[in-house]
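Q: Structure tokens for this one, please.
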Amino acid sequence: MLLITRDTDYGLRALCLLARKKDRSFSALRISKELDAPYQFLRGILQKLSRAGLLRAEKGRKGGFSLIKKPENIKVTDVMNIFQGDVDLKRCSFQKRICPDIDTCVLRKEIEDIEEYARGRLLKLTVKDIAGV
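A: Here is the predicted structure, written as tokens:
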């Protein structure tokens, strides 16, 4: 089970940085330097976050990216949904083509319970929580 992709990770890092800097706008270049992230890669991440309504993108010399929503109103799962689609932890890593016993798997119920617990925790976790603001 891959829980967090690279895109989601960098998206969350960028949101946390902006949450800690409160009400300030930062260029993609400055954010990439502060996060030690590849500029072109991070720029694409920031644009996706902007299109999703989490960031404001202002063009021009004094432009940059800033948060639209308060950090406590941005859930980690919101960001996961942008980059990974619906948070679905119940996909069996073995899948039917590899495991013919997927319907009778002795571990499946336990794994589903663990994943449901993790999903519940993720649904409560916000950018504010992980940014420490």
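A few notes: The longest strand covers residues 55-58. Helices lie at 6-21, 28-35, 39-51, 76-84, 95-98, 108-124, 127-131.
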